[in-house]
Amino acid sequence: MNDAKKRQDEDFVLEARGITKNFGGLRALDNVDFSLRRGEVMGLVGDNGAGKSTLIKILTGVYPADAGEILLERQPVTLRSRQHAKSLGIEAVYQDLALVDTLEASANVFLGSEISNPLLGMQFLDNAKMRTEALNLLKNKLNIQLGSNRKAPVFNLSGGQKQSVAIGRAIYREHIKILVMDEPTAALGPEETEKTLHLIRTLRDHGIPVIVIAHNLEHVFAVSERITVLRRGRMVGVRSTAESSKTEILGLIIGAEEKEVVPSSGKA
Ligand SMILES: Nc1ncnc2c1ncn2[C@@H]1O[C@H](COP(=O)(O)OP(=O)(O)OP(=O)(O)O)[C@@H](O)[C@H]1O
Ligand SMILES: [Mg+2]
Hints:
The protein is an alpha/beta fold. Helix content is 33%, strand content 27%. Helix 6 (159-171) packs parallel to helix 7 (190-205). It is globular and about 65 Å long. 36% of the residues are buried. Adenosine-5'-triphosphate is lined by residues 23, 26, 28, 46, 48-54.
């Protein structure tokens, strides 16, 4: 192995090898390899049902794999649960964002790890401190200002603001190593999409490698360094974004180079 290649290999923050996952009789993932380098955004693409969400659920501890191994910073790990993956610095923002609509942004950022002060033998939530810390985090790390919405319940926030609150919650812990986002732009308008893509680049620039699933190849090309393509549960290609094209990626997604055998209709 030459030195340049070796250095690149040493830059992997996450590697998955030979991941296989069955749901009953259905093989959702078949011997999938995947890697994420330090300081990169990796796009994960594929048609509906290709296995994208299943793969990231395995990489975030939601499901165990039936076969294969995962290396975090070159050490083999068994991700026992979502909580366990979080404790190792693997954070995720799922499509539904999982915010509590009736709570304000800062309370959502600190959900499950609230700051409290002891007083007369009891713990009281330090709302002022949480608000200051959360708003500072959003402003300094993500360049997001909530303005008049800073104390409002998050159901009043725009889609893009909600997205940034969900990201804020994922990244505020110091030890975050990887952020995974499943379709962050799916429900957003053009302006908010632009902001979210900018946010992803900001995270990368802060040294947080990001895995992004998206159907829209414009978005993937706007934000990623590399792209992994899944097709019917198989990994069919990894490309450097700068050296690839939407046509090439689309070809991999739909399997354009393969000869399809179309079953005749009417027979089950
Ligand atoms: N919990 C589950 N139980 C049974 N089958 C599942 C489960 N989750 C996913 N599958 C199946 O596994 C396959 C891969 O699904 P997955 O959700 O990973 O695809 P995807 O690439 O994320 O698709 P989409 O773009 O539609 O979100 C599909 O055939 C799906 O129906
Ligand atoms: Mg999915």
